[in-house]
Amino acid sequence: MKAAPAGLLLCLAVLSGTFAAANGGTLRLANAVAGPYLVSVWTEAAPQPGPVDTSVAVMQPESREAVLDARVNIVAELVGGSGSPITTTAIRGAGGNLLLYHAELHLPAAGRWRIKIIGAGSNGTGTTQFDLVVATPRVPALAFVVAAAAASVAGWLFWRAKTRRRQNLPSSPSVHR
Taking a C-beta distance cutoff of 8 angstroms, is the pair 66, 10 a contact? Predict the structure, then answer.
């Protein structure tokens, strides 16, 4: 079993609750007992259907040092759903922090998901879980602004073309005798 001396820093980050793993994410589970380990999990702040960045810290409970030789699997099931569980493996350092295990968990639908973390290492295997609410995707405000601008431009072009046509029409024919 390998332990990082930087475990103290990891412990302080976990205890502070402000550590922004998972690309600026939110702490979902702090120091949860998972068999012989402590596990903390971060995800995106407001996950929506699709890939959800997930970071996991696996620590020794006595020393709070990071466990660097674990195998971390993440299993997600839609609560009340009938689909198959979604499983992915978290890779140490893949998210840029060598003390954390990182994975993109692909959650295809909005709803309440039960996320199970399974950590296995030289001290044994442990499991913990938490629920994660995946929100219905929202159309960003910028999309409304762009749509309104496009509609305005289209309306102006239509009006301009119509007034030009009127200007180019010959006036009523004069009668020449």
Answer: yes
Q: How far is CA 116 from the centre of its chain?
A: 16
What does each C-alpha distance from 166 to 80, 130, 157 come to in angstroms?
63, 68, 14
**Residue listed under structure tokens 């009668």:** 175
| In the chain, domain spans | 26-134
Quick check: 89 and 103 in contact, CB under 8 A?
yes
* CA–CA distances in Å: residue 126 to residues 32, 45, 67, 83, 98: 10, 26, 13, 25, 21
Report the Cα 33 to chain-centroid distance in Å: 24
Distance CA 71, CA 120 (A): 5
pLDDT single digits (tens) 125-156: 999 999 999 999 776 666 667 777 888 888 88
**Architecture, CATH, for domain 26-134:** Sandwich (2.60)
Q: What is the DSSP string of 141-177?
A: HHHHHHHHHHHHHHHHHHHHHHHHHHHHSPPSPPPP-
Q: Pick from 98, 132, 82, 81: which is nearest to 3 by CA?
A: 98
| Cβ 8 vs Cβ 73: under 8 Å | no
Question: With bands split at pLDDT 50, 70 and 90, how would you rate the model's confidence at 49?
Answer: very high
